[in-house]
Amino acid sequence: MTSTVLPGLCVRMHTAFPNGDIAEAQTTALALTPLVNAQFVESNPVPVKHALNTLGWITERGAAAAL
Fold first, then answer.
1. 27 inside domain
2. Is residue 51 part of a domain?
3. What percent of the chain shows pLDDT beyond 90?
4. Residue 27's pLDDT is what?
5. Is 22 inside any structural domain?
6. 3-state DSSP assignment of residue 18
7. How far apart are CA 2 and CA 32, in angstroms?
8. What is the dihedral sign for C-alpha 9, 10, 15, 20?
9. Is 24 part of a structural domain of the chain?
10. Which ranges constitute the DSSP H helices of 1-67?
11. How many domains does the chain have?
């Protein structure tokens, strides 16, 4: 779910680690922690849908927004 909201940071973290840049991977993981925690407050997709709606990626009804 986190990669749906912040794909760039997830790619950065998952690229840094196997390339040996442990410090970058850890820094990025720590930056993502508040979002990860917020997404799993409830065991349903509402937090992710809210985040995507806030970013303008979907409408309140869950349909993809026109970009």
1. yes
2. no
3. 42
4. 97
5. yes
6. coil
7. 8
8. positive
9. yes
10. 2-5, 7-16, 22-39, 46-54
11. 1
